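Sequence in, structure out.
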Amino acid sequence: MADSIWRQRRREELIKAEMARIGCASADPNKLVGLAFSGGGIRSASFALGVAQALEKNELLERLHYLSTVSGGGYTGSAITWLRHTHSKQAEADVRAAAQRDNPPDGSRDSTAFAGLLERFADYLRSRGNYLDPTQRLNVLSLLGIVLRTMLVNATVYLGAVVVVLALARWAVGALFGDAQVLFDALLVLAVGVAVVLVLAAWYFALGTGRIGTGGGSAETARYRLRTWFQVWFGRLLGLAGGLALVGVLPWAEAAVAEWLEPGLVGAVGSVIGAIQGFAQFRNAQAGKAGEKLTSGLTLWLSVGAGLYGLLLLADWLAQMLLGAGDTGMVVWGALALLVGVLAVRANVNMVTPHRMYRDRLMEAFMPSPEDMTGKRSRLAEAANQAPLAAMCADKPPLHLVNTNLILVDSADTLYRGRGGDNFVLSPALCGGDAIGWATAADFAGSGPEGLTLATAMAVSGAAVNAHCGGAGQGPMRNALVSMLMTLFGLQLGYWVSRRGCTAATPNFVLAAKTSLVGRGFDERADFLQLSDGGHFENLALYELVRRRVRTMIVVDGGADPDFQFADLGNALERVFADFGASITFSGDGLDEVVPTKGDTYPATLGLARKGWVLGSVTYADGFRCDLYYVKATLRPDLPEAIYAYKAANSEFPHQSTADQFFDEAQLEAYRRLGFELAGDLSDQLAATL
């Protein structure tokens, strides 16, 4: 394992390298400006696009030093980076002339060159909000087909491997002892033996506690270490005994399942399930939220555990089928073993999961080839498909910081393990974070088309569905059994990278994916690292701006927050205070100004806030202070009637569920126009101060 590309860097080193990348080497590190786009899928992308257009109305995007994005905000952030990369000065001049000829009175089109490019892109995107179902050829059935293909490949590798091993074990034991049942009897005996060891150890430990020692010092230290050793090995032996017992009772479990197929017993099982559900609901009502969380967690473990054990039963049944098929079964067994081995070694797990489909559809919607932006037909984004991340932002500010989450659920560092990971930046200058250090984009991401592309970075930052992850490090996907089930079926959008660089080695089932299956090896020293949605760490993309002490921060929050609980903001406040000693406060009435209240007359009956943004301050322990402009997706007075009309017809707007990734034209335009209107006066204020 080569770690030469990674090293820790101080804030000053980061800023120096990053400013040199975008041609701003002379920039004052204490007067930097940054824009952050939050997560939230196509909803936050649409809202962020409107904000970007409002800022560019005053040519503010080129005054930015940093563009920090996460998840859905990265869709629009990547579009901005891509547009600045692909369009020449002459193309911008042509757009400027065209915009001056066609400037509608609503002001959403502007005469500046890049504003015209953004308007062309907005026109292009309006009919592509359903990016996962873009054409008659690439539709929902295509998506379903990719998911089924993924499940087939993963089932072949994982379930096939278990079938091969069980068939081999049954055949070998049967050949030696005449009956394969001896294998399962032996496993049960071993389980009982381990259980006996546990009982004896428990008695021995209990007897030892009766000795009152007065030695202190080294004697007490020795007892403490022995006690800790007992605690560790009690857990390991208990897991071993349980695993041996579960495999050992396979024949009895299979027989029981066969009996349960009788109609009467099916009804009995249904009654038991109903009774359990009723009891759970009763306990939830009695215990409140804490009891509900405990019961749902227990139900989750039991249901997923039963599903996994069902797969084990299926594997053993298939193994018996192979052994019972005579010579034909042996040929199939050998072919299956060969297929499993070849797939496990040769298949690139990044290519066989839904990640690649997700990445390609995002790329086609948000990173079109320049000549395709005026067309109405969907085309392949061949230029973006080969555009390395390391080639972006060359002498063209702002520097794009794509925020992802480095999964570290098995880290020795309790902070990383508790959070589930660490913020990991992908940028054209430097990649990395606190956990493993920083490397140049050329060293880590690669500088050729075979390396990490901007499109891939965008998709990784939005990989919300992934094992061992969850929003702000929490949620059911952190559950070990849920993660195992997701891994078995390949239901992951995360991205595996070699620690030595993205092009150094291919992540396969043997070297990389096995880590996700067992949940072991997700640490800073691993040969392969898995990156997931940056929202699994922090969903406002604020974290890296605070690290760099950016003097003026503009944070665009398009996350789903229908009750205005500001959960993403709260998580960000906690993280930046814990890691950088930075406290964030808001002036005036604070966040109350963006919280809607209902009035008696239309459109106040829809619920309107006083403003669309509030001013806050970031104060560090040494007294250094930064301005923070927080833009929130909310409705306020004096918006266009079209926005109020959309709200009246869609009560959840502007906080419709992130699960909806199939926006139609009206929906996308409503969010885009809302962002444009809310940020309009902010753009004017910033133009006068920056």
